[in-house]
Amino acid sequence: MRTQVCIIGGGPSGLLLSQLLHRAGIDTVVLERSTRAHVLSRIRAGVLEWGSTEVLRQAGVGARMDREGFVHSGTYIAARNRGFRIDFQERAGKSIMVYGQTEVTHDLYAARDAMGGIVIDEAADVTPHLDESAVTFVKDGRGERVDCDFIVGCDGSHGVSRTCIPADVLKTYERHYPFGWLGVLSETPPVSEELIYANHSRGFALCSMRNQHLSRYYIQVPIEDTVAAWSDAAFWDELRRRIPHDAAERLETGPAIEKSVAPLRSFVAEPMRWRNLFLVGDAAHIVPPTGAKGLNLAIGDVHYLSEALIGHYGGDDEGIDTYSQRALARVWQAIRFSWWLTTTMHRFPDQNEFDQRIQESDIAYLEHSVAARTVLAEQYVGLPF
Ligand code: RFL
Ligand code: PHB
Fold first, then answer.
1. Which terminal residue of the chain has fewer beta carbons within 10 Å of its beta carbon, N or C?
2. Ligand 1 atom 37 nearest Cα
3. CA of 14, nearest ligand number
4. Does domain 177-264+347-381 have CATH number 3.40.50.1360?
């Protein structure tokens, strides 16, 4: 098989890149390790920056999002069981869109199918060969090979692409947080019309949603906790203790239809280009979910790289030569924001009452300072590309 751009990974990054390039007349092949059903069953991100919604529209996959997604012009921040609102429109002139990653991925697969895009799922042993500008893999027990101009690693944090960058070239930066998030999806009306991020001396909590009948809630738990350690009843009790009193009183509970524990981590790999290989999304960087930045950063990378590759095939290499530098500058801003919000909102194992008061003062400052609310809003809605 021969193509121009071979994309490893059929998550949101890989599918979106393939869609944007195909629309610009550039051939791609996407190689995905899992089944499509598995990729579509992952419950992950819920919040899109406005810039991300624009990239999705540009890719021709914005119609259902614009019909079914929820535009939020603000969010609630809480401490000591009391919340206040930050108005994104007023402070940053932009809103965000609540539309699940599962739906984004679904729309991307539908669009790829409609255009006859090649997405090969259950591709095993995917191996990039940078010297030969090719990727080999095994499908249905048979060895296959794709020759290409460029290889793009959209294969997430445990993918194979990043390992092709020599150890003396690759530099990584990492922080592990000493707790996880227990997430629950339930067929109940969301407790609040906008998200609530709650600091509490018992630990962080987040109230989010997918639609008017589907809520997504998270609580901070010890990193070693398993799903089995948390009955539905124990989860709801703990959530109620941490969120604002008025929300706790309104909270409607029901059976969890999905429950999982996710670790929190910050990670950056540099550079994001090595020879004919580019890294995109979680393959190059991970943020803790507190700032809702993971999927949005992935979409940002795709935006830069699609422009760069379109430029290359039009005779201009500046975009591919500066891709790593441009993408990383924006990535580090989101790494810092996600670290700050995580640090301000969570209970650390060695935290004492002094540390708790510092966090509460930081949050009170947000409530009372227009400047502080502007700083948060500008970053939450997403810095410009
Ligand atoms: P993905 O989604 O991990 O997709 C990578 C794909 O590559 C495949 N793959 C391979 N294929 C072939 N060969 C190999 N060797 C391969 N190795 C891996 C995998 O099967 C997979 O299909 O990465 P991508 O596309 O870069 O997308 C990144 C996002 O998924 C991620 O950043 C977000 O989900 C993070 N995230 C959030 N981001 C937001 O912007 N807003 C949020 O509100 C938000 N909430 C979250 C989140 C992530 C969470 N978890 C569970 C990690 C909430 C949670 C709980
Ligand atoms: C979600 O709805 O899953 C979600 C929302 C906001 C976050 C993280 C996750 O910061």
1. N
2. 45
3. 1
4. no
